């Protein structure tokens, strides 16, 4: 693949993106960055008309002189490997990993570029994410997770902590995402990264097919001494989970998420830390299961999570 010089590559991994992919590309065309850029789409063996549309005259007219590069995989190689394919194909100094189920708002890309350039130790940054209805989608999380956080969040003990303190301690949905801050973790749906960071720490871990790869990557970037910045003035709408629900359904998606989370723990945390987190998870899920039964509320997701936590704890203890 021949790519002329650009400062930014916008990278998307597509699987049956359909109208969401169209909306994403149209938003980039409507609110493009002010630097030379290209777009690289890696298609993971879509069964819809995504690739044909990407090659259409409509897209050529939409993007004008902006180069669009399409990498077609013959199978779904997963999110991590597909992103790494695009990273390897790009020559840009900055890379914007963007899910095709997103839409960038006015000025978002340029604001992220400015944030990424704001300091020599800034390695990556992420925008304020909104749900389809315009509400906040939490994207700044603690990393790595700890037993106290799992227990406090899972058993509702956060209600005992003053709101302002709770937001700073727990982040996620407890924090208002209203100011720029150094973040332990950013959500991989929209994340801008310096190439020099990737050259130092490597790309996404291809042992992860989907989910938790951004958690592991952010932790690896932090451990290498780089800062992750959350930038609330850059806003991106994330329609969220559309593709995973299409592929697995609700419980199937939940299973894949937690299995990837356990995989992340085994790869990135010490064995005592992993066991403590799993014990905390079993405690939380047991408590939630009892509570649901007392209220006679069906809870298939709680039963599944308890099963997964218990199985991984047994595996960890057995392998010790």
Write the layout of secondary structure elements.
Layout: E1 8-14, H1 18-30, E2 37-44, H2 50-54, H3 57-63, E3 67-73, H4 79-89, E4 94-98, E5 102-104, H5 108-116, E6 122-130, E7 136-137, H6 147-154, H7 163-170, E8 181-182, E9 190-194, H8 195-201, H9 213-223, E10 227-238, H10 242-268, H11 271-294, H12 300-319
Main features:
320 residues; alpha/beta; 10-stranded mixed beta sheet; 12 helices; 19% strand
Folded structure, characterized:
By secondary structure, this protein is of the alpha/beta class. Helix content is about 45%, strand content about 20%. The chain is built from twelve helices and ten strands. The protein has helices spanning about 20-30, 50-55, 55-65, 80-90, 110-115, 145-155, 165-170, 195-200, 215-225, 240-270, 270-295, 300-320; strands spanning about 10-15, 35-45, 65-75, 95-100, 100-105, 120-130, 135, 180, 190-195, 225-240. Strands 1, 2, 3, 4, 5, 6, 7, 8, 9 and 10 form a ten-stranded mixed β-sheet that branches. It is globular. The mean pLDDT is about 95.
Short précis:
With 320 residues, the chain is of the alpha/beta class. The protein is built from twelve helices and ten strands. The mean pLDDT is 93.
């Amino acid at each position: 693949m021949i790519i002329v010089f650009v400062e930014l590559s916008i990278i998307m991994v597509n699987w049956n993106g359909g109208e969401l992919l169209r909306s994403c590309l149209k938003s980039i065309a409507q609110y493009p960055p002010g630097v030379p850029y290209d777009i690289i789409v890696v298609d993971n063996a879509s069964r819809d008309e995504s690739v044909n549309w990407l090659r259409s005259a409509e897209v050529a007219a939409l993007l004008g002189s902006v180069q669009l590069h399409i990498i077609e995989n013959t199978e779904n190689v997963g999110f991590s490997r597909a992103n790494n394919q695009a990273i390897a194909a790009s020559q840009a100094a900055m890379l914007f990993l963007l899910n095709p189920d997103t839409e960038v708002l006015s000025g978002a890309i340029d604001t992220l570029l400015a944030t990424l350039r704001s300091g020599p130790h800034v390695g990556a940054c992420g925008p304020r994410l909104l749900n389809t209805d315009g509400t906040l989608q939490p994207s700044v999380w603690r990393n790595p997770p700890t037993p106290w956080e799992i227990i406090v969040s899972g058993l509702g003990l956060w209600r005992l902590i003053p709101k302002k303190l709770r937001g700073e301690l727990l982040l996620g949905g407890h924090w208002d995402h209203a100011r720029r801050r150094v973040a332990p973790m950013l959500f991989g749906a929209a994340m801008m990264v310096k190439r020099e960071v990737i050259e130092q720490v490597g790309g996404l871990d291809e042992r992860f097919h989907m989910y938790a790869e951004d958690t592991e990557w952010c932790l690896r970037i932090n451990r290498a001494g780089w800062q992750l910045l959350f930038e609330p003035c850059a806003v991106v709408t994330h329609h969220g989970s559309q593709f995973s629900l299409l592929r697995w359904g609700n419980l199937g998606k939940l299973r894949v998420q937690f299995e990837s989370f356990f995989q992340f723990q085994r790869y990135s945390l010490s064995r005592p830390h992993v066991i403590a987190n799993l014990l905390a998870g079993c405690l939380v899920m047991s408590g939630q299961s009892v509570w649901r039964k007392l209220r006679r509320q069906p809870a298939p997701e709680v039963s599944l999570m308890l099963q997964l936590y218990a199985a991984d704890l047994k595996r960890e203890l057995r392998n010790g």
